[in-house]
Amino acid sequence: MMRLTEDQIAARLAADIPDSAYVNLGIGLPNRVAQHVPEGREVFYQTENGLLGVGPAPLPGQEDPELIDASKKLVTTLPGAAFFDQAESFAIMRGGHLNIAVLGAYQVAQNGDLANWATLDDKHPPAVGGAMDLVAGVPQILVIMRHTDRAGEPKLLERCTYPLTGAGVVNRVYTDLGVFAVTPDGFRVVELAAGNSLDEVQAETGARLLA
Amino acid sequence: MMRLTEDQIAARLAADIPDSAYVNLGIGLPNRVAQHVPEGREVFYQTENGLLGVGPAPLPGQEDPELIDASKKLVTTLPGAAFFDQAESFAIMRGGHLNIAVLGAYQVAQNGDLANWATLDDKHPPAVGGAMDLVAGVPQILVIMRHTDRAGEPKLLERCTYPLTGAGVVNRVYTDLGVFAVTPDGFRVVELAAGNSLDEVQAETGARLLA
Amino acid sequence: MIDKRVPDLSAAVAPIHDGAAVMIGGFGSSGIPMGLIHALLDRGARGLTVISNNAGAGEVGISALLREGLVSKVVCSYPRTPGSIWFERRYEAGEVELEVVPQGTLAERIRAAGAGLGGFLTPTAYGTLLAEGKETRVIDGIGYVLEPPLPADFALVRGEAGDRWGNVRYHATARNFNPVMAMAARHTIAEVRTLSDTPLDPHSVVTPGIFVHAIVEHGERP
Amino acid sequence: MIDKRVPDLSAAVAPIHDGAAVMIGGFGSSGIPMGLIHALLDRGARGLTVISNNAGAGEVGISALLREGLVSKVVCSYPRTPGSIWFERRYEAGEVELEVVPQGTLAERIRAAGAGLGGFLTPTAYGTLLAEGKETRVIDGIGYVLEPPLPADFALVRGEAGDRWGNVRYHATARNFNPVMAMAARHTIAEVRTLSDTPLDPHSVVTPGIFVHAIVEHGERP
User: Fold this and answer.
1) Which residues in chain C touch residue A79, judged by CB atoms under 8 angstroms apart?
2) Beta-carbon separation of D2 and B42 below 8 A
3) Domains of chain D as residue ranges with CATH
4) The domain A6-210: what is its CATH number?
5) Which residues have CB under 8 Å from B74's CB, separation 6+?
6) Which of B114, B136, C157, C210 could be disulfide-bonded to C124 (CB atoms 3.0-4.6 Å)?
7) Could you tell me which chain D residue has the CA closest to the CA of B87?
8) pTM of the complete model
9) Inter-chain contact D123–C116, Cβ cutoff 8 Å?
């Protein structure tokens, strides 16, 4: 199988973020999308801890320990940025003001259900953060993830087995094997990573892929 | 009958406002209380249009047209003042953060019911403003008003006949004839304006006064 | 590029259609987007629902919209400001509908719409005429009224300074209803005293640009 | 005279009693009232309910309170920050109770307590495990969960600058939960980097002093 690297998946997703969009990027791989948005587009990233207009990492010597993103990484502000408190930050998310949220996932179901906050593992405490607020309020939910988990099990499924973050919320899934849209009929293949056939990708998917 | 002037009633009420209190003053006569607070007390007035720390009227030439109180009068700020928006202003009122609200009234009943926003006059549109929020959230509601209306009818009553602003909310009433506390048994006389007997004041009151 | 600037007041109000629900910021004479209101007056959209704290005064602003017969409904807390002559005239003639909402409930309903909430329980107005017909409940001995969110098609707000990203800060008590209204409309139009080419200090921003869809400079204070 | 200043951190936390519900501001490493938390650690109040976004990390702050066994319950949105070693240890041993609340619902429940509201309807968590056992309703096709206010006995917040009236302003993303928590506690204690003899600019104030009951200077940043 030909598999995209994480940066290639991020770059593929970034290509779909239009100029002037307001975007929330989840922790981890979603966060890497910002580095790949094509030149010439002004995209405004929100971080739920209270900043709209997140800029790149600071230059050495210019770090501000109180200027961080949701991953707790040091960031900067873009021109036109604004700070606000937590209640207002989630008003922005829940109130439908953002255009796009990019999230990681444990599982995505063909009806758009998303599971990305809790496994059935009793040993670890559940941790939800802002994911449920994002899926409740942001009109475009894009998922970025590996096509299968570490054990090789499919993450695109007919039905999620982990607890849901939100029901019927995902619009598109970007993986190392392609781009998949959630439609009323199920997962539709938008494109496959070069070099793979539909049958090969179908074999690693837990739901029927529509061409 | 000996009747206090409006400024005398305001001064009497002002004497009961302790140092360091946070106070909201209603439009009209209540607003005049600020001019009578004894020297040496630092009292912080909130105006519901978005300021805590309302100062006196500006000196000529120092007016700021965008610095007004709820009466729409030009004001100043005291040292330590803060501006905020309308939602936060009412969070302060409704959330129990103020100590005292001073309101005018059409009628007060012996169970603490307050009527100060609408009459039964169909010709005029009802106008409620922030009165219902204040009585819902401020622990001490002090009413300042004339003891009787323009027609000489009593305003302290067994039961309000006008629509209520709030049920069982008034703590004390300050009038031109005295100070009256609302108790579980009804209106208790705290003091009478000098020169009047209880019987004389009772005659102008629509509920039984307790000595 | 994110650029919310529009060339003038009339371009700013051009999207406002007949029958629109329009929030208008301001309290008393401060923080009123007077330039936008008068541009709307010139445009002449009809059958408007106006959501504002007051119902205007004199011959300007909301009062002028009422005078010209453009307003079919007013949602406000206090329509009896001295000088509300045109509201009173239209109201007495039965030409305008009125919904009176307690001021804090008005602010909170507007905020709820902006924040994506489905409603809230408030103690305000419990046991009064303004709670009649509404769902109520008692929790720990305190009575509450369930109030729905109040959204709008448009919001007209007035700030002290703004930038091309739509960020707005306010002066003194001119802030009032403007920040919550900016959150709650499908299309928010901000009039600012100075519209700057350089961005506002991100600490000073009260209305983040994400809430603002068009911004225009109007130097005159109301 | 209004003067909320207290002489030092230990005087500031002296009122915090065993069994208290304590809100603690901060997100990640920014805006955490580390001076107050460590003073509370020294004081040693037990059986605390800690309300915060995270459950601490490393050997400092909330994590140290957990290590010393002072915390019986944590209400938070994300207890799995890397390095939450003491929370994980206490949780696995069944020594601490956990209530997980979606982050926006946490902020809004805290705000509702501060604003005197009896609860609100939010679409967040509708149809999920976190809505189980809660009242829900569908309005215009959208499902909502009824969430109650979340008050506390104490709030510990961290600001950039403050004055004797208790006014606080914040730096950058250190604002986070601090302003809503300041509203929601019976007794709010603010730690600020600089406590000034002169009042803050009233436009710059984010937490008005009315929400703050004690304020103390602690120059070190966490």
Assistant:
1) 165, 198-199
2) yes
3) 9-101+150-217 (3.40.1080.10)
4) 3.40.1080.10
5) B57, B58, B63, B64, B65, B67, B68
6) B136
7) D115
8) 0.98
9) yes
